Amino acid sequence: MGFFSSSTQTIPNSGEIPNHIAVIMDGNGRWARKRFLPRVAGHKRGVETVRALVKTCAKQDVKYLTLFAFSSENWRRPDDEVSFLMGLFMDALKREVAKLHENNIRLILIGDRSRFNTELVAQIEASEKLTAENTGLTLTIAANYGGRWDILQAANKMMLQHPKKVAQFAEEDLTPHLAMYYAPEPDLFIRTGGEKRVSNFLLWQLAYTEFYFTDTLWPDFDDEAFQTAIQSYQQRERRFGRTSEQLTHS
Ligand code: IPE
Ligand code: IPE
Ligand code: MG
Description:
By secondary structure, the chain is α/β, with parallel strands linked by helices. It has one domain (20-233): Undecaprenyl pyrophosphate synthetase, CATH 3.40.1180.10. 41% of the residues lie in helices and 14% in strands. The chain has helices at 28-34, 39-59, 79-102, 118-131, 147-161, 171-174, 223-234, 244-249; strands spanning 20-24, 64-71, 106-110, 138-145, 188-191, 210-213. It has a six-stranded parallel beta sheet with strand order 3-4-2-1-5-6, with helices on both faces. The model has no long low-confidence stretch (mean pLDDT 96). Magnesium ion (MG) binds next to loops.
């Protein structure tokens, strides 16, 4: 697994097509309510959007796609919605993993697995193992993930690794322990559903990411909507602290 530099330490390469896209898939409940359907119908439709987006990203040579599927705060939802989401996740894994593998896609789950039932953990582990050597798109699913949890679990591991070191830690000591150590930081962050917040997603890793917010609800986020997000990204000037003049002269 590769080691990637930090955007606050060195200037990363950024190309026409974002190397890493991170998405908060929001708006499933509202999509359903608009149609007088139960909220869970929106989650079900949302899976179709995931399937299409994965296909598009693989085709367009995006290297990393990271999807926020369930936050550490989503346990606060009604029990029946939480159970439905867990079941949906399980079914989607079972149903899709062979196809992901066929398409050379590597699947990785980030988040605290300790609250998942044993069957789901087993299914996750089997899916990761099957696709571990694949060299195409890396699809990361963030489930029971929280950005603060991630930073804290990394800090705890870092301190265990250097038991004698006190108050001398550098970024490079921490970053290998973050959940997404295997990927460069996201180039593009997309949030559907109209809210303009990060909701405890990748807090550390979004330091220099370009943000894109759209009112489109997740089940409606089709290829055209995705291409609009890419076009918006392509118009940005990523300065990483430098001046615009420095960019045009180099
Ligand atoms: C996002 O859609 C899916 C999850 C959080 C699992 P929501 O369920 O948050 O949909 P809205 O925001 O209520 O419309
Ligand atoms: C964020 O969506 C989490 C996921 C999409 C999985 P929420 O809909 O739960 O976010 P908040 O709580 O409204 O910010
Ligand atoms: Mg929401």
